[in-house]
């Protein structure tokens, strides 16, 4: 007979009932073929003595197995493994190996996406400064304020309904408030039907890509371009066409030429501060771009994630503010103002596109976090968000000025850069005598981690030697340490 | 000269600065072709008098326009619309029509998805009872508890880092706690590398589909099947193969036959309580299914959203608990226990699949809500979630019993149903003499809204006349009202 006594291990400290543990293990033996169909099981008295447990525990386990169909009782004969179960050849697997198999490797094939980048740890370890490619400083997030408003939102009985399934396109209150907010601050002329709440700009780009680009649709982007947008387009099935970018932004004359040779479905622009080079699209090209969109009936995906961070003159109104023909899909976000983990953004587009976006969103994750959306709506209404934005804008401007001053002072021999008019990063071209990889290695030795290799935005391997260094998330002393570190690293490299 | 005075309308109550309003409107005139390149603009003194604003406001606006490249100043000649701007043929558009265009219709084409369903309002209006197809009662959500823990999480300085970009696969603390929780309660043998945090079961289904099903991959599902899963598979490019479902669940013998005729990439099962019919997959078929998965190397997508809601014997361990060959992708959720809007779920799979899921998630919405995930981790650790689950389980059992008793008592002549062993809905077949549409119309007259038409789960139009009626979200008096309403409706229909 099967050695129950030596094979069953019960853990009295576990949260799972003893009788269920017994059940689980017997099922395991059946499934693995150690207990074959029609095998007789020991009587409850005998098994309880063997395992030193109460007989009622064994009876409960057998009842459970019976009701689940794993065993059967035959009158006057006893309890047996159900005879109708398929016979399994015993797998003499080593539980350790089995676990390793489970952890590591699938027993089926699936689609690998070589274009997508793996998950990295973004949290800084103590003592290490990470220089990102333009993230806000989460230490400035108005988190007590959010927590307080969130709590007040929850307390209101009439907000209780927000806990159940709600509109896929987002909390209605937030959408209404965004209509006013965007019409007033950015010259849009939209209605609540044109607003779709996303989980940050990235989801806007993802959904727009999925709707616009099926296999072999062409999308025009700048050369260089925001890397994650590129991978999102490719993943949706799009073919990327690169258009040169100079100091006036995307070259629209080149784009026009492209449109004449092939059908362009969409054009991606970060009109305010081009990613990665931070240049602003000139007035002339803005108009030309809108004209082309109308003429060739393509969609403009305008990623304006940076709108709120303009340090000199007033921010330039987005293309969307002059879109009279429904060509612009306008994407923005609050994650840069508040905190990256507070994932609320928006996608503004003609109603027919929003309706389709909602249908897709429904199968992606059903809806956003309605309580957090309601909280944000409240904070825009009271002006808290706008005040916070003004506050951090001043801080980031100071940081930009310090960063650029020190760069010019201490590293002029190595770098070429322009002071960015806005945003959270400087676009720096390293003198081609040097190699970024060497700089990264030398900096790492001094506990400063620069952008990873795949974030250099050299999409077509032209060797431009440019990189984005984010200044906004670094405080004054961190900026000084980073510049010191770069200086030491480059001196080391140039003398070796 | 262009009539600035009559065309410019400044709103002193707006949040946007007067000078920016002036800018915006002049840009608008340029973009729409009303002000052509090289047109002379009025002097600042003259315009300030015309518009009755301070001269400094006009100067600020001109400075802004100059810096954005819309206008140019020629020494001793004055200010002009930039001569290098493209000449636009004036669009004599009616602002009202233009706005309507913007709201409604895109000036580009995009992919329409006829298989996806539109966004409906899920919130109940006052006085109307909505009978869903098996949602929890959000009125029972432990919202004060969540709010309190959330606040405590936020207060801790070492949680501040959670506000920045974090791991795509989810909060590490929650993943660690889920390893213990799932290993203990469901007999899994997983490690933290096998856990991926989603925004509810639906995102698990979406991501699994995107990774498994490219164009023309076949996925086997029950007939009938959970509608939203079907649409998610089709959207990913999958071809659906329907396998019969009887009172023991998915017919695995039929599945085996199917596997022999074509390559099946994945099989979707809700093993615990089949959706929509609520039957449980028998022990025999569970084993057979795992055997087939190994033999034919397909993935089993096990959607176990309902695991925690089993009213009779203990819940049956998932297929994933006996997956020694890495065939099972196990999907679960906390949205049913806590609240639909608190969108946290998980996907459990071999590490290679999880890595790929993370790469995809990165371009969908970058990451989940790390503060909410940390909050949930804490609530599982303290047992709050488990206690809440026990509490609502009792309430739902009482509701199920009342609902089924009344159904049997009052509506036996019209309906055929079995008492579900778990879950939040009863699968009811209406006598084929009657038509659900008539019942829906009659009920609506009494302010009771039944499931919409497309939720009848008649995937292959067999006319089974079945429907899911959710009891869990209805309290005692609401259940009585719904049964009364059904009774009246059916009496009305059968005598007419």
Structural category of chain A is: alpha/beta
pLDDT < 50 runs, ≥5 residues of chain A: 91-100
CATH architecture of the largest domain in chain A: 3-Layer(aba) Sandwich
Q: What's the gyration radius of chain A in Å?
A: 30 Å
CATH class of the largest domain in chain A: Alpha Beta
Beta-strand portion of chain A reads 5-15%
CATH superfamily of the largest domain in chain A: Type I PLP-dependent aspartate aminotransferase-like (Major domain)
The name CATH uses for the topology of the largest domain in chain A is Aspartate Aminotransferase, domain 2
Number of domains of chain A: 3
Distance between the termini of chain A: 75 Å
Tertiary shape of chain A: elongated
The major pleated sheet of chain A works out as:
8 strands, mixed
Work out the largest interface and the residue count of each chain. Answer: A-B, 146 and 145 residues
Total beta strand runs of chain A: 15
Query: What percentage of residues of chain A falls in helices of 4 or more residues?
Result: 40-55%
Number of H/I helices of chain A: 16
> For the largest beta sheet of chain A, what order do the strands appear in spatially?
4-11-10-9-8-5-6-7
The average pLDDT of chain A is 90
Q: Secondary structure elements and their pairing?
A:
Two copies of one chain form a homodimer.
Chain A: H1 4-7, H2 18-31, H3 44-51, H4 55-68, E1 71-74, E2 78-81, H5 95-104, E3 129-130, H6 143-155, H7 172-186, E4 195-198, H8 201-212, E5 218-223, H9 227-236, E6 239-246, E7 249-250, H10 252-261, E8 264-269, H11 283-296, E9 299-303, E10 328-333, E11 345-348, H12 351-364, H13 370-381, H14 384-411, E12 415-417, E13 425-430, H15 436-445, E14 448-449, E15 466-470, H16 476-495
Parallel strand pairs in A: 3-14, 5-6, 5-8, 8-9, 9-10
Antiparallel strand pairs in A: 1-2, 4-11, 6-7, 10-11, 12-13, 13-15
